[in-house]
Amino acid sequence: SQQGEEDPQALSIQEGENATMNCSYKTSINNLQWYRQNSGRGLVHLILIRSNEREKHSGRLRVTLDTSKKSSSLLITASRAADTASYFCATDEGGRGGSEKLVFGKGTKLTVNP
Amino acid sequence: GAGVSQSPRYKVAKRGQDVALRCDPISGHVSLFWYQQALGQGPEFLTYFQNEAQLDKSGLPSDRFFAERPEGSVSTLKIQRTQQEDSAVYLCASSFYSEQFFGPGTRLTVL
Hints:
The structure holds 2 protein chains of 2 kinds. In chain A, strand 7 and strand 8 (71-76) form a beta hairpin. The model of chain A has no long low-confidence stretch (mean pLDDT 89). Chain A contains no helices and 11 strands. By secondary structure, chain A is an all-beta fold. By secondary structure, chain B is mostly beta strands. Chain B has no helices and 11 strands. In chain B, strands 2, 4, 5, 6, 9, 10 and 11 form a 7-stranded mixed beta sheet that branches. Chain B has a 4-stranded antiparallel beta sheet with strand order 1-3-8-7, with no helix packed on it. In chain B, strand 4 (31-37) and strand 5 form a beta hairpin. The N and C termini of chain B lie far apart (37 Å).
């Protein structure tokens, strides 16, 4: 079963605009990760945020985490056509830490138009 | 070094055939995971190894699915008597700690 839900399911923007995707989850977690998947390719890890962190940046990516609301957001600034992909959040269900199975949402399909 | 590799990349099987999917994890990664991704969905967990020990197989959908990692490195996911509902992309991931690195997947089509 899938724990998270991404919102929106699909997002279409123009190059240069910012894209915001949201993720909600159900159980307590150790960390939350965001992945990107291009059509027909594997998942690429983007960023990991731990449960005791509230915000994290990596290049054009900004991730926030609100454990009280069990939600996270991924912001991509100054989007490019190459950012077109599906984006998934994944949580580890708050296990003992270390390597744990990931529970993915259904993803947000982002289209960046040139 | 090299990332996670999987073979074959594509597999077409007739219903009832057995298939074997291979995963080569990143060298030194202790943990290995298998996920199944149906079209338009996020990946769903199948099973997890720590070295050669299969610690969690709660996601395997039926007893037709079997996974092994006998020497704690390469892993094989075997599906016996394939059914049409087994059609999906099968993803393998390895990790040393929290971050999981995914392979390109094997797209299985059962006719």
